[in-house]
Each structure stands twice: as C-alpha cells, then as structure tokens.
Amino acid sequence: MNKAVIKRKLLVKKATDYSYTILFFISFAFFTFFVIRPNILTILSLQEESGRLHILDTGYENVIKKIVDIQTFLEENRTDLPLLDEALPNVPQISKLVNDSQLSASESGMNLNTLSINKVDLRDTAKKVTRKKVSLTIEGGANFLQSKSFITQVMDDRRLKTIRQITFDIDTKQGSASGNLRLVLEIEGFYL
User: Fold this and answer.
1) Which fold has domain 86-191?
2) Can you tell me the distance from the alpha carbon of 92 to that of 18, in angstroms, rounded to the nearest whole number?
3) CB-CB neighbours of 150 under 10 Å
4) CA-to-CA distance for 43 and 37, rounded, in angstroms?
5) pLDDT tens digits for 64-73?
6) pLDDT digit string (tens) for 161-179?
7) 0.70 surpassed by pTM
C-alpha cells in the first residue's frame, strides 16, 4: 500500500473516531485500575475498621457502665462496708468468736461446760478468695428458754455463722427436777 493511501485512511473521520475511542478506553482503564480501585479499597477497609471499632467501643462502654454501677453501689453502701468486714472477716478471729459465744451464754443465763475449737488451718497459703470455716462445739446446761435465748443471741451476732448440729438432752448430773437441759451445739463461723 501506498503511504498516501494509508494517510488518507487514517485521516478519514471513521478511523479518527475509533482511535480516540480506543485511547479513551485505555486511559479510562488505567485511571480506573490505578486511581479509583485503591480509593474504593481504602473506603471498604475503613468501613470494616469502623465496624470493628464500633463493636470495641460498645464493649468498652459496657465495661465503663459496669464500673460506674459498682462505684455507685460502693458510694451508696459505704457505711455498710465495715459491717461486711465484721460478718465475713479476712482472718478466722477465733478469740472474737469464742468471746462472743461466752458473752451470749452469760447474757442468756446458760452455763458453759466445754467450748472446743475444731480444726482450723491458720497457715492457709492459698490466695483464692473463698469462704473458709472454723467450727466451735459448745456444751452447756440451761432450761429451754435460756437455751432458746442463747441460740437467738448466737445467730444475731454480726459474724456470719450457721448452726451445723444441735442436740438437747436431759441433764442427768443435776436430775430432772431442775428442768435443765444439756445443750450441745456445733457452730460454723465463716471467714475469707
């Protein structure tokens, strides 16, 4: 073919339109691939990150609400916290438990015969905050009303206690004419 014919065919309106269209599609594909695609990927990753941060923010907000609720509870019950320490002390406080039992016995009119402490591990090295117990066995003599008064006073103390076992017998040493009962009581006091 001749150079003149090729020039003429290239300069014809139809050939020119196709060349501009081809150049437009090539430049559009380049622009789409290298400019728009990274921006779209950035937008999608930012939306995903925003969703994760929103979930994390909700979790932190719930934790903060719980902390505020606990702080509010502590502020409202600040005056009652020493009572909780008295009810469930950190150490066994065996002497206080014995003294309280003796005081309750003397106030109710009960005669204490024996007061024994069952096994207590004073060298507890476990750092777990669990409820531990110390057991007392109390044996004494009193009439029924005095026994009832003693049990009521023991349970009304601030220290958290349970009566594990209670036994009433007729006091055979003094006879049945006096109306005294022999009371055997096993008490568990709790501590942390």
Assistant:
1) Alpha-Beta Plaits (3.30.70)
2) 97
3) 24
4) 10
5) 999 999 999 8
6) 888 888 888 766 655 555 6
7) no
